[in-house]
Amino acid sequence: LAQRERWTWAGVFVGIAGMTWSLGALAGVGVLAMAVQGMRRTEWRTRLVVLGQSIGVPLVLGSLYPLYLWRHYGSPFAFLKAEGMLWHRHFAFPWTTLAAAFQHNGLDLVVVVGGIVLLVAGYRLLPLGQWLFACAAFLIPVVDVSSAGDPYSISRYALILFPLFIVLARLLRSREAFTVYLVFSVFALMV
To answer: Using an 8 Å Cβ cutoff, are 53 and 7 in contact?
Structure first.
């Protein structure tokens, strides 16, 4: 929708995504990037309308859940408290997460390194909005780790980042590259 410059609907769906899934709100980064790119060719009044639709609508919709939490639990960020108490997640620098993935789980290491490689390659292969969404959504589980320090379930988060799969498909166009990837994947699953 944002590619077709239907900013109100793009904003509505970003708002809904943000209410249903914490990483869904990051789609707003991509929509905002597309809005800014599209504003170069419009007058200032139209720019204000586009910004209002692409930022304002998701913010209004995204504020509904925190308002509900505030009314019923006394805090608009009660989910953060619950996450800290139950899952003991905290901030860690990306290199710390990479070292922990190397020590704890081979699959996590493959996912972290592979995700970084695909993000770097995706800079030229993806539209800016999709690339920014993928970077932001990949960074969250890399810096928000469990109390053990490992990137808990990072493969689960990476599997839903569709821009990474678009990059992978573009990189594996040749039969030889696809065969190498398949062999590597089989060995990575055995780790």
So the answer is: yes
- C-alpha angle with apex 121: 120 to 122, nearest 5 degrees? 90
Residues 6+ apart with CB under 8 A from 87: 146
**Dist. CA 174–CA 170, nearest whole Å:** 9
pLDDT in tens, 50-87: 667 667 777 777 778 888 889 998 988 887 777 777 77
* Neighbouring residues of 101: CB distance < 8 A, sequence distance ≥ 6: 108, 109, 111, 112, 150, 151, 154
Return the biggest CA–CA distance within the chain.
58
- Our separate counts of H helices and E strands in the chain read 12, 2
pLDDT digits (tens, 9 = 90+) for 26-42: 777 777 777 776 666 66
Look at the pTM and tell me if it is higher than 0.90.
Answer: no
Is the Cβ–Cβ distance between 162 and 168 less than 8 Å?
Answer: no
Token pair in block for residue 8 = 């109100």
Residue whose C-alpha is closest to residue 73's, from 65, 85, 62:
65
d(CA 48, CA 74): 35
Q: Which two tokens stand for residue 84?
A: 């800290």
What is the CB-side half-sphere exposure of residue 122 using CA atoms within 13 A? 26
